[in-house]
Amino acid sequence: MSIQHPQHTMNQAACLTMLPNELILLISDHLMRKQDLNSFLRCNRRFYSLLNKRLYQLAARSRNNDAMMWALKTANVELAKRAIDAGSDPEKEFKSGGWRNDRPLHVAVRHASETKKRSLLPEGEMQDFLQKNDNLIRYLVSLNTDVNRLDNFTQSPLWEAVIRGEINSVRLFLDNGGDVTMQNCHGGGLAHAAIGPAQSNGPNALIYLDILKLLFGRGLNPNEGGRHKFAPLHSQVKAVNRRIHRDRRKNTRTLSEERVEDVLKLLLKYGADIDAQTGVGETPLELALSCLPQEPICFKLLLRYGADTSLFSLPPVGEERDAAIKVCREVSQETGRIFEFLAT
User: Fold this and answer.
1) Based on CB atoms within 10 Å of each CB, which residue in 1, 91, 201, 272 is the most buried?
2) Is pLDDT at 1 greater than 50 in this prediction?
3) Which of 101-110, 116-125, 210-219 is modeled with the greatest confidence?
4) What is d(CA 339, CA 286) in angstroms, rounded to the nearest whole number?
5) Which of 324, 319, 312, 265 is nearest to 286 (CA)?
6) Residue 275 near residue 311 (C-beta atoms within 8 A)
7) Which domain of life is it from (predicted)?
């Protein structure tokens, strides 16, 4: 700057880095955008040390909890700790695209699943990232984050972990107050969410089977059907039916008969009523008619394990009737039981 004086002129350069801390803080008070404050604190180490926490405080006040979101994206526990120390709320709701309102724990659970599913990282880096993400989830839970908090799709972090097959997170959430009785907006419970993928021939089917064992071991009612009285056994048959139609469209086969029987035996072991009726009176065996003639496995297994045929009637004619009678004859030869259906 140049200072004019009646007697002489003095030229002196004013260097920003020479300003005292008080003035630097005063200047930073007028930098309301994170980008500007971040550029400012990168001038030198003194500015960084002086203003870095202020940057995190600004991010904590942002609509989308920016510092915490970056910690989630990078699975960085230390970054999450700095964000929370600066005032970020680990329960803060934020927009994450579309209609979804998310919270950090929901995002962390989904991030692990989506990273594996989409192979977003090289194979050599995947395991390290998943371990860091698991540590981040554990850190968030250690802050007493609510593992039953619902998003606007009525899904909790526990629900997310179940449907995505994240068994370590399921176990962690159950150990920290997870509610096994929760239901989604359609009245489906956690067992309903895990049964479908547990019956596939994919590599994760056994993980979902273990999740079911874990849930039932923690007190989940195997006969809970929600407002529609649609119990897990009904859901099992419906899941098989959906998979049949999907496989037919794609000309493939993803159903595992062995896993279907494993799920059925597990449900019965924990007390599922094999003849439970929906709100409109349908039993699992009656629903299994819809899988015929393409896939008789559900109908056959339910008969083998004692389902009552006298609670409903067969269609008067058609492929379903013919296939059902054929299966009944086969099981009758195996077990010696006589099957009689309700008269029409």
Assistant:
1) 272
2) no
3) 210-219
4) 13
5) 312
6) yes
7) Eukaryota
Q: Is the Cβ–Cβ distance between 328 and 290 less than 8 Å?
A: no
Question: pLDDT for 256-312, tens place per residue?
Answer: 999 999 999 999 999 999 999 999 999 999 999 999 998 999 999 999 999 999 999
pTM of the model: 0.83
* Nearest partner of 305 among 328, 327, 274, 281, judged by Cα: 274
Q: Are 287 and 231 in contact (CB under 8 A)?
A: no
pLDDT the model gives residue 118? 66
Which amino acid makes up residue 66?
D
Q: Which of 318, 300, 296, 317 is nearest to 309 (CA)?
A: 300
As given in the structure block, the two tokens for residue 35 are 């980008």
Collapsing DSSP states into helix, strand and coil, what is residue 102?
A: strand
- For residues 52 and 25, the answer to whether their CB atoms sit within 8 Å is no
pLDDT at 291 (0 to 100): 92
Q: What's the rounded Cα separation, in Å, for the pair 208 and 204? A: 7
Yes or no: is domain 62-179 CATH 1.25.40.20? yes
Asked if 222 contacts 179 with a C-beta cutoff of 8 angstroms, the reply is no
DSSP 3: E
Q: Give yes or no for residue 178 having a pLDDT over 50.
A: yes
d(CA 42, CA 63): 24
Quick count: other Cβ atoms within 10 Å of Cβ 270? 19
Q: Which helix (H) or strand (E) holds 101?
A: strand 101-102
Give the separation between CA 105 and CA 83, rounded to whole angstroms. 15
